[in-house]
Design a protein that fits this description.
This protein has 2 helices and 12 strands; from the N terminus they run ααββββββββββββ. It is mainly beta. It has a domain of about 90 residues: Sandwich (Immunoglobulin-like), CATH 2.60.40. A hairpin with a 2-residue loop joins strand 6 and strand 7. This is FSD2 protein.
């Protein structure tokens, strides 16, 4: 039967012509909804670590922080400035670095100087609130030994030095 049916010529005519309206459909609301489903939230504020004992030299500091959430992070924005009692100083200008890791070593700093650090996390949705601010201190410069004032005898030695730092130094370690 199928073979006979397929041999017949079938002429299909529609009795009425289809009447289509030309409509413009606005999908902007649907598109916004779809985009909102795929977006990631802005990250939470990172937590900056206190200064580690071996994190400073006379001209550099290693700053570390962490993120205690499962946020997606593209990079971090580390900001710092020297701590100063003066209100409008050129040295108090804020510096900003873009960092991929959760640590950064900042160089070209002044010896025996306090610096204030804070960090924010960034992703495609935006920037997090800044972390709490942490104060780090660079190591003092080595003192200058006054070689003309050195005195010694069989059982003792007198060694004099002076600090090259502007800020006072807490203590010195003398090695023999």
């Amino acid at each position: 039967r199928l073979e006979e049916f397929l041999k017949k010529e079938v002429d299909l005519e529609l009795s009425t012509l289809p009447d289509f309206e030309e409509r413009v459909i606005d999908f902007s609301e649907v598109e916004q909804l779809m985009n909102s489903i795929n977006t990631i939230p802005a990250p939470c504020a990172p937590v900056i670590n206190p200064q580690a004992p071996s994190a400073a030299t006379g001209t550099s500091l290693r700053v570390c922080w962490g993120l205690f959430s499962d946020d997606t992070i593209e990079c971090y924005q580390l900001c710092y400035k020297p701590v100063s009692n003066e209100r409008c100083s050129d040295e108090q200008a804020e510096h900003t670095l873009q960092v991929k890791e959760t640590y950064c070593t900042i160089t070209n700093l002044l010896p025996n100087t306090q610096y204030e650090f804070w960090v924010s996390a960034l992703n495609a949705s935006g920037i997090s609130p800044p972390s709490e601010r942490a104060v780090y201190v660079t190591a003092p410069s080595p003192p200058t030994i006054k070689s003309k004032k050195i005195r010694s005898c069989e059982n003792a030695a007198l060694v004099c030095w002076e600090s090259r730092d502007i800020n006072p130094v807490d203590s010195y370690v003398v090695e023999l």
